[in-house]
Specification:
The complex is a heterodimer of chains A (about 300) and B (about 150). Chain A has 16 helices and 8 strands. With about 300 residues, chain A is α/β, with parallel strands linked by helices. Chain A folds into 2 domains: about 120 residues, Glutathione S-transferase Yfyf (Class Pi), Chain A, domain 2; about 170 residues, Rossmann fold (3-Layer(aba) Sandwich). In chain A, strands 2-1-3-4 form a 4-stranded parallel β-sheet. A 4-stranded parallel β-sheet of chain A has the order 6-5-7-8, with helices on both faces. In chain A, helix 14 links the parallel strand 7 and strand 8. In chain A, helix 3 packs across helix 4 and helix 4 packs across helix 6. Chain A is globular. In chain B, helix 3 crosses helix 5. Classes of the chains: A alpha/beta (about 300), B mainly alpha (about 150).
Chain lengths: ~300, ~150
């Protein structure tokens, strides 16, 4: 296995940097050999750019992949959108010579050449396949006694023929990683349904996208959980920012949203501030008090 | 995608029934597939209501790559000049900043506060941003969204 280059994307460094910080902390704690992928751009976002022009989408994705090829590292993504664009582009370019030649013609203008020598990983897929929930559980210092609604997000799972993570209707691998932290994954209606943000819907039809988000939030609220855990900053933004927008329409959910890097960070004993929970739009004093109490108990 | 694949659609409606957007919007994937065989549907706003969740593609009993078909239909709409203003704005961010969601002063300040330097992305490296711009010009993307 190659060392990893951390691919930041757009939403994490530029809107939720707390997730970036949490990821750095947990990768170091796990002893994973990683470095930042310098000079990377937008993946580019699958919803809009893949819809607009396939060759452009491939060329920008290929440039990011080549940056990692030059370091002889695999790419680690912490966003389902980045995972989707980079993995799908990588598969297409590896398997389609004509397309590869066309993209390389563009890349050659910036002295780059796609070779197809690396793999694209996602933090959830990586932890599941390389470490495993059982081994991860052994490393946990402060078991998090939380009730959690796990949201996989569409592009972590689908298309299933490319993701190779099993079926998408009732997946378990992410739930197992959540439960490895001591939390309990609570079933809820619409668990594998979309958050509503993807495909360029959030950017062009915000209210429409929130209808899908609200369906999710209703199911999650009914299940009675302490927080939502996801592994995609775009889903994170949709749930966190979406609740603020819904509040303006008099609909209160007040469910904290936590990226898995942040959850794992908390289980490793990092404080809510260290993992950037305070940077969410939706703050819950009750949730933060609960975390503080769990962490205090872990200390004694 | 080959047109012959689309032609195997027997209009069962599993795609529409599996669509999280269609529950709330006028998006009817079954009809989009049907219409796309007969005519140019570049004008249809419904095309842009798909979140690309892939439920339809996963469940299609004929194995039609339904979501990929929607992406191709969108690409055709864009080539016909049908670009939503919000999407054009996101494309311009990519062309100018190398990011669909670029950094702003508020988040530079937040990063500093939590001990993070400037992201190690094109934001920090002007030469890398120039490469991205060269690529977008080379593929004709900047012309496409003008």
């Amino acid at each position: 296995m190659k060392d990893l280059s951390l691919f930041l994307g757009c939403v994490i460094p530029n809107r939720y940097p707390g997730i970036e910080k949490a990821t750095r902390l947990v990768l170091d704690r796990l002893g994973i050999k990683w470095s930042e992928l310098k000079e990377a751009s937008c993946c580019p976002a699958p919803g809009i750019f893949r819809s607009f022009d396939k060759v452009t989408w491939l060329a920008i994705a290929a440039r990011n992949i080549v940056l990692a090829e030059e370091n002889n590292t695999d790419i680690l993504t912490i966003c389902n959108g980045c995972f989707s664009s980079l993995m799908d582009a990588n598969n297409m370019l590896k398997n389609d010579e004509a397309l590869r030649n066309e993209v390389n013609m563009h890349l050659n203008k910036i002295d780059k050449d796609y070779k197809g020598t690396i793999e694209i990983r996602h933090i959830i897929e990586f932890l599941h396949n390389e470490i495993g929930a059982k081994n991860l559980n052994k490393l946990i210092e402060r078991p998090l006694e939380l009730r959690v609604a796990v949201h996989y997000g569409c592009h972590l799972l689908k298309p299933t023929k490319d993701r190779l993570l099993g079926g998408w209707e009732c997946p378990v691998f992410f739930d197992e990683l959540v439960e490895a932290t001591g939390a309990k994954s609570i079933p809820y209606e619409g668990k594998t349904s979309c958050c509503g943000a993807g495909g360029g819907v959030r950017s062009s039809m915000l209210e429409t996208s929130f209808k899908m988000t609200e369906y999710k939030l209703l199911g999650i609220k009914k299940a009675g959980v302490d927080c939502i855990v996801e592994a995609c900053p775009f889903c994170h933004l949709q749930y966190d920012g979406g609740q603020v927008e819904l509040e303006k329409a008099g609909k209160q959910y007040n469910i904290p949203v936590v990226h898995y890097s942040q959850l794992l960070g908390l289980a490793f004993g990092f404080t809510p501030v260290e993992v950037g929970l305070h940077l969410n739009a939706i703050r819950s004093p009750d949730f933060e008090a609960m975390i503080a109490q769990i962490q205090k108990k872990g200390m004694s | 995608m080959k047109n012959s694949e689309i032609l195997t659609c027997f209009q069962c409606g599993t795609c529409t029934g599996s669509c999280p957007s269609g529950k709330y919007t006028s998006l009817n994937v079954r009809r989009i597939i049907k219409d796309s065989i007969k005519k140019d549907i570049s004008e249809q706003l419904d095309l842009w209501m798909c979140t690309t969740c892939y439920n339809c593609q996963e469940r299609c009993p004929r194995g039609i790559k339904v979501t990929d078909a929607i992406l191709s239909l969108r690409e055709k709409a864009v080539k016909n000049g049908k670009i939503l203003p919000a999407h054009r704005a996101v494309c311009k961010f990519l062309i100018e900043m190398g990011h669909a969601v670029p950094i702003d002063d508020i988040h530079i300040a937040i990063r500093e506060k939590i001990g993070l330097a400037q992201p190690e992305t094109v934001t920090k490296y002007p030469r890398a941003l120039k490469d991205v711009k060269t690529l977008l010009a080379s593929t004709g993307f900047d012309e496409l969204i003008k």
